[in-house]
Amino acid sequence: MTSLPLLIADLESRGIILSLVDGEIRYRSPKNALTLSDRDGLRSRREEITQWLAAREAARALKRAKGAQGPLTVSVAQEMWWRFAGGAQEGKPIALNIGMVGQFRAAPEAVTAAVRQVIARYDALRVSFRAEGEILHPALNPAEALVVEQEDFRSQGADAAREAASTSAREFCARVNLIEGTWLTRAKVMALPDGEAMAAISAAHMIADAGTRNIIIDEIRDILEYGSPRAAPSVGFNAYSLAERELLAGPQGAALIDYWRGWYDAQPVMTSPSDKVPMLWGNGIRTVRNFTIPGPVLARVRAQAEALKVTPFLVCLTIFSLAMARWSGMERFPVRVLGDKRTALNLANTVGLMFCADAVEIHAPAAQEFEETLHGIMASYDASLASRIPALHFWAPYCVRPGIEVRDFPNRIPAVFNYYSVGTAREKAQKKKAPDKASVWPPQIVKLDQVWPRRSSPIFLHLIDNGDQLDASLHFYQNVVSEQDQESFVACLFQAFGETVGV
Questions:
Q1: Measured between alpha carbons, how far is 479 from 501 in angstroms, rounded to an integer?
Q2: Does an H or E element contain 99, and which?
Q3: DSSP string, 48-87
Q4: 214 alpha-carbon distance from chain centroid
Q5: Alpha-carbon span 236 to 173, nearest angstrom
Q6: 48-52, 124-128, 175-179, 470-474: which has the minimum mean pLDDT?
Q7: Distance between CA atoms of 413 and 394, rounded to whole angstroms?
Q8: CA distance 471 to 488
Q9: Which helix (H) or strand (E) segment is 245 a member of?
Q10: DSSP state at residue 344
């Protein structure tokens, strides 16, 4: 049976648009576009389609939310993050921070003032938290209480100073910012030769995300170059969070949660190929395999994306999905894809924890051509975005609010995929193109083990697009994926990459 996303995509490609009116399916279309076969298909799947249309309407309402006025409140996502990342093991094995580092043609005093001005603008970066049992209480730190650390490298040569400052910034951003600490944001400015300075801002992931990093760096640059921020104002994080919470607590939120409950219950359980262990999330040792996809291979990915009129993200997601299908022997399975809730103009510059994850049903038949598989995955991903529920990647899709399901509800989505392009538009434009590295394939892997006290997905692929190469980090949960199965998955992934882009 055709998947629902593919069915909807096929109808829409023919100009047939479905909607829900008083609980009944309605459509508009060109004359005679809806065939008898279409009508029979819609009737046979009436309940499924009705639930999806209701979920889509709820998700649209969430996207249209303009913000709500009210007291400083912990967001739904922050409640989740606290339960995931807080507690006695916080900061192990690594501090979960968002590092915001930039180099500026300005004196350290000017950069320090700009950093203070930007952090003063955003309550989201000045919030602190206090726990009482299962309740988390937020409070706001005064902007003037922020300490901006200083370090001076002007006595060194320009190259040595930049290298030393970069090392200092990495170390600074790697320190844990405790969720229940006084400040979850810290800042440091480093003086460099030739009238330049580097700023490092470290915010706990509890209050920031990668999108926040780009917004903050751009605003500091605007203040230094133009005297004030130039980006259009956006809904504040607290106002957005209040509107989101209100919708999720109402009937539209219930429809969204009910839809995803049904979706999740319908998903198959993947097992590891060799040991047949169910691919469930858990705590334990996580094996990390880091490698680099060199510039020439990334260029081929981009060329493939351009030829297919899609993004490199979608090409890489399809490659990852093909590897999962071949490795597991399953043609249908779910994957988590990390995303960003800044999907409307009024949210484009919202500072705060706006990252989320979307559950996507993958169909990757062995006999199907790459392009057909890609378009099927694109339809599934688009359907997921259209009915988005704002959960985080380590929660099952309908554990959208603490208390809906038990905290240790077994997440059985076997894999998470993350494709992130690094840097602001200005940083990318100013970046010098590095010489292409030899496209040796498969790439060399650097392997390490981490004791991970928090729930971890069986397979997690991070792809960081640096412009000149992709930095890849592939994570395996050892309790589920054995060494043998890790090796076979890596082979499937590299083979899928090689076949797709011709390396």
A1: 33
A2: strand 97-104
A3: HHHHHHHHHHHHHHHHH------S----HHHHHHHHHH-S
A4: 14
A5: 25
A6: 48-52
A7: 9
A8: 21
A9: helix 237-248
A10: S
Q: Is 307 exposed, middle or buried (0-12, 13-18, 19+ CB in 10 A)?
A: exposed
**How does strand 415-421 pair with strand 459-465?**
parallel
Amino acid at position 143, single letter: A
Residue 227 is classified by DSSP as S
Tens digits of residue pLDDT in 33-48: 889 888 888 889 998 8
Whole-number Å distance between alpha carbons of 501 and 101: 33
pTM higher than 0.90: yes
Please state, in angstroms and rounded to a whole number, the distance separating the CA atoms of residues 152 and 165.
9
Tokens of 328: 């597991």
- Token pair for 144: 């003037």
- The per-residue pLDDT for range 460-469, each reduced to its tens digit, is 999 999 888 9
Structure tokens at 354: 């706006």
CB within 8 A of 206, min separation 6: which ones? 78, 81, 82, 85, 86, 96, 129, 179, 184, 353
Nearest to 111 by CA among 213, 185, 195, 204: 195
Record the tokens describing residue 184, joined without a space.
Answer: 């979850």
Report d(CA 119, CA 125) in Å as an integer.
6
Q: Which of 452, 445, 437 shows the shortest CA–CA distance to 490?
A: 445
- Dihedral of CA atoms 103, 108, 111, 113 in degrees, nearest 10, equals 170
